[in-house]
Amino acid sequence: MFSMDKNYVVQVNEKLWKNGQACGKQFTMKCAGDDPNHNCTDESVTVTVGAHYSGSHVSFILPPVAYRAIVDPTVLQCDVEYKMIKD
């Protein structure tokens, strides 16, 4: 994974990938945990879909630097809110 101007490239699951239709789409994303134990930050990140993976237990795989921007890195998984900003 790499970042250009804090626009992070992410992987998505097959459901979101839709046979490549998601490639290049951009989203804003932030941690959605209202539970104080989720340790969400107030930050959001912009991500661009660049690849897919065959798992389906999570929707997005973020690079570590993007993940740390939105949630405490000691939390292994969190719910996210995301909104498409570029189709």
From TrEMBL:
Residues 1-87 form the Expansin-like EG45 domain. InterPro entries: Expansin/allergen_DPBB_dom, RlpA-like_sf. PANTHER family: EG45-LIKE DOMAIN CONTAINING PROTEIN (PTHR47480), EG45-LIKE DOMAIN CONTAINING PROTEIN 1 (PTHR47480:SF1). This is Expansin-like EG45 domain-containing protein. It comes from Microthlaspi erraticum. The lineage of its organism: Eukaryota, Viridiplantae, Streptophyta, Embryophyta, Tracheophyta.
